[in-house]
Amino acid sequence: MMSIIILLLLAIIVLFGVRNIRMQFITRPVFAFFKKVLPPLSTTEKEAMEAGDVWWEGELFRGKPNWNTLHSYGKPALTADEQAFIDNQVMTALTMIDDFDIVHNRKDLPPELWSYFKKEGFFALIIPKKFGGREFSAYANSTIVSIIASRSVSAAVTVMVPNSLGPGELLTHYGTTAQKERWLPDLAKGKELPCFALTGPEAGSDAGAIPDIGVVCRQEFEGEEVLGLSLTWNKRYITLAPVATVLGLAFQMRDPDGLLGDIKNIGITCALIPTDHPGVEIGRRHNPMMMAFMNGTTSGKDVFIPLDWIIGGPQYAGKGWRMLVECLSAGRGISLPALATASGHVTTKTTTAYSYVRQQFGMSIGLFEGVQEALARIIGNTYQLEAARRLTTTGIDLKVKPSVVTAIAKYHMTELGRDVLEDAMDIQSGKGIQLGSKNYLGHAFMANPISITVEGANILTRSLMIFGQGATRCHPYVLAEMEAAAMENETDALDRFDSLLMGHIGYACRNALTAFATAITASRFIKAPVSGATQQYYSDMTRMSAALAIMTDLSMLIMGGDLKRKEMMSARMGDVLSQLYLGSATLKHFEDNGRQQDDLPIVHYVMQQRLHFAAKALEEASRNFPNLIVRGLLKVLIFPLGNHFNLPSDNLTTQVVKGMLRPGPARDRLTFLCPDFEGDKGGIAEVEQAFLAKYASKEIYKKLKQAQRNGHLKSKQPMPVLFEKALEKGIINDSEYAQLQDADAKRLAAINVDDFDKL
User: 267's torsion region: left (phi>0), alpha (psi -120 to 50) or beta?
Assistant: First the structure.
């Protein structure tokens, strides 16, 4: 028996160690198989694949994350200028916002707010200082949008769009010197208002299928014949289009007469056009979920522009798709996640307060376990949103363009935003559904589907983008193997592929061994960068990373090009990567905040959720794997002892809620994007003041409860009567009586809703 084993080992050594033998029996057959199963990539897919950078998600995808790398990214922080802008201009803007009036009466921002935004550079957050802009960081941009969104989605979107994908960003990155000098100073001053037209009736999530055409031709322009483009377009869903003065336009560029060269179909191109240019049509509005931000259509037929209106000049003709993907990957990680994070801060602040002051059956509704279950989800999801916001903007501020990370952020953060709003509406119920100036949830709840659908519909982001792009971009070998397979010289291709294949085999074996070993040892022997309460989470995340890596390799090996069409399978594996990213953000946020012990119950809650959802996605993916043998192998490698990653316990859920039903630093850290200010018109200050007043009176309320238990006071009587009887019987004194009256008046104001003579 030993002789047979030795012979087998020698055969394996010879087979893999002797190059000529390996090339004949392993590399050539595998190379032929690889080329056969290689997923075909369209031009736009290839450009999207190559655009952007691989960042922290690359570590998570490869089975052995370097957690010290995560902690080395640094803690996001505002500069003195950024903090001063928030303390002054942003807080001043909040006092000018009456969101009920904006949405239901004006259906637009008030003129004074438009003027203030323009004058104070709210539309110039990303424009360089040398052109008169603010040149703020992605973290500051996100923070500003979030704070404004805490009071008005319509105002936040108005600020958000010029600082996201659009002329300002495209010009900054790609514009010619003349274009920058012509447009950026006026954009910074608010003299020009931009929009960017990408989507249309036939091009939504598949923005690469733009049907709008620009044909190269010669026409007269400003008194002389010039080479330019005859443009025809029909766009919709374009934010700020009805009021824009300058239009960024994406279109397919054609050169049928060969005026520029031999290429007839040049490809997607971006141009900048003044909206008062002859033939440009703007002004018609959409009605996006009743929100008041400007959103509408733009069109044009046979509109002639000179070639130098192409963003970046004629040399950037046909490069628009890559430009858009790179800029969109950054903007996608700032704008919509900022709105979602604002929803978390608002719902946490108001729903914890409301749960404390709202009473049913003689006690605060926050003491009911059913309410606590939903309230814990709000708190946990808000912590997760803030953590992900910080990590994602950190990556963008490091000047990387992490396209996979920002796709994760856009999808999962907008979904978490939806979750917190639904839970908050469930708890606040009648308070949440009756629109009026006192309602701080209704408009955000109505607007949430906008975030879900724009900048790539969430369904397709999850099922196509996250894993589909991540599996190739983040894998240490696959993209290089694809490039080797595409080489024209087959000898050079085989040599390159042979080197990559040996590394790939070793990589796969390591991940398979890690996945199995960590599964049977419960990750006990995996090193973590920290000790204490969160140490185990790092080890478990490494286990999940190794499991994802081996499943990715087997999926690509067995399914090949078909994996692109196995969207449910791709979505599940994308979910694993996403949960690992969100978990990473949570752990880093805890470290960046100085390991605050009063945050620890929330961190436990969030991390147990992340690991549960990651393990569930792995389990479902392996259970649905199309190959029976591989399905069994995956079960042995990943969950040989079963899946024991459970959701947080009832006891932990209660701990999370109790920590937030009182004022304190932990609650302040989780709600700082929803600031208090004098003159708040939206009802948030009202419920917060009631919460603080009632909490300050908690010892007096305890006296009343004890008196009721002792029979000195009757139960179930109106509060004013209860207070008077307690005063008459000497249970409370005059000062305490006045304090209770004040707290109860604030409580009643907070739980009441608006009513109207007529609608």
Answer: left
